[in-house]
From TrEMBL:
Protein name: CobW C-terminal domain-containing protein
Chain ranges of the CobW C-terminal domain: 3-92
Pfam families reported for this sequence: CobW_C
InterPro entries: CobW-like_C (IPR011629), Zn_Chap_cDPG_Synth (IPR051927)
Source organism superkingdom: Eukaryota
Length: 101
């Protein structure tokens, strides 16, 4: 069972904003954290931003990504990890959907 999950989400409904996902017990929070660095002009970046992390280049998506951590019982099982990954992969856009987006 899942005790906690948290991370960053790139949602198709918001290509500009990084979304934060946080779940603990029966509590769930999903909110905007601000813009992905890839969408912000470098002229306005604050001093000290790690440019190598902020400008990760995977195709043309920059630093946009899905990064969610799950904490729970039985999650050390490769079978359970695969089930979670497969479930979340079904939520991703297909290549055709992404191309249209």
């Amino acid at each position: 069972s899942t005790l906690r999950s948290k991370g960053f989400v790139w949602c198709a409904s918001s290509n500009i904003n990084s979304m934060y996902w946080s779940h603990s017990g029966i509590s769930f929070d999903y909110k905007c954290l601000g813009q992905w660095w890839a969408t912000v002009s470098r002229r306005v970046w604050p001093v000290g931003v790690d440019e190598s992390k902020a400008t990760r280049k995977i195709d043309t998506v920059g630093d946009r990504r899905q990064e969610i951590v799950f904490i729970g019982l039985g999650f050390d099982s490769p079978i359970k990890q695969k089930q979670i990954q497969d479930t979340l992969d079904h939520c991703l856009l297909t290549q055709n959907e992404y191309d249209e987006y």
